[in-house]
Amino acid sequence: MNKLIPAIRVKNFSFYYDTQKILESVSMDVYQSKVTAIIGPSGCGKSTFLKSLNRMNESEKEVRVEGRVEFFNQNIYERRVNLNRLRRQVSIVFSKPNLFPMSVYDNVAYGIKIVGWRPKLEIDGIVESALKDADLWDELKNKLHKSALDLSGGQQQRLCIARALAVKPKVILMDEPCFGLDPIASMKVESLIQSLRLRSELTIVVISHNLSQVTRISDFTAFFHLNEYRVGHLVEFGITKKIFTKPLDSRTRDYVVTRIS
Ligand code: ADP
Ligand code: MG
């Protein structure tokens, strides 16, 4: 394996909603140009952890954190961090497509337009290349001005990924991107993640309950679980193949073995 460069370093990171502790002292690296999967039972804090990587949690509630999350050596929890800039560089795709009630084109162009004015031709080019990167151009090139909300669930999810790609993020976070999709639509999202994985500049963190999918798409896997106080924590992190064949912790083994065919 080539030299691994951490894009994100999480160090002794704990997270609280109000006074309730949700995550306990998580430490792990997210390596640049790799796909890192996050697995674990429902309620163990996977989504909370993912949203902590671009401070998306803060819009929801009073939150408190301890420890650090460093994005290319800068602690994103420092006060002077520009949140809009951070979220352009570390963008997030949720399990339920959250497109705007606008055209396909305007959804993809949305992120670039809010950064500042650009000539239309340039925006056209960015929209086209984001749709191509998301393997959607051929399907949608004749529907650019149709409402995005009329697309199928799978297309909407891939369009969310195209919208995220349009602003050229360094990292894309995906929270159960295949949730609720039929097997064919799910496979298309999976193939898209595979093709993004080959683009060496992009780093992906993806939560998935589909463990066979995790073995196909990820380089590294982090297994989260609840501790005895029902607080989420990282049990084990490692190369995906190792986590699935020779996990060090019996809790990882139990979780993985009972869920993979
Ligand atoms: P997972 O994604 O692994 O299912 P979550 O991160 O969604 O887990 O949730 C972890 C814990 O945090 C759960 O106990 C959940 O109830 C709690 N939680 C999630 N979101 C919020 C919120 N906005 N406010 C308060 N508690 C929350
Ligand atoms: Mg979740």
Q: What features would you describe in this structure?
A:
The strands form 2 sheets. Strands 6-7-8-3-9-10 form a 6-stranded mixed β-sheet, with helices on both faces. Strands 2-1-4-5 form a 4-stranded antiparallel β-sheet, with helices on one face. By secondary structure, the chain is of the alpha/beta class. Strand 4 and strand 5 form a beta hairpin. It has 10 helices and 10 strands. It binds adenosine-5'-diphosphate and magnesium ion.
Question: Helix and strand layout, with pairings?
Answer:
Blueprint (H helix, E strand, L loop, with lengths): L5 E12 L2 E12 L3 E5 L6 H7 L10 E9 L2 E2 L7 H7 E4 L10 H12 L4 H14 L3 H4 L12 H14 L4 E5 L7 H15 L5 E5 L3 H7 L2 E7 L5 E8 H6 L4 H10 L2
Helix pairs in contact: 3-4, 3-6, 4-6, 6-7
The site of adenosine-5'-diphosphate has 12 residues, from α1.
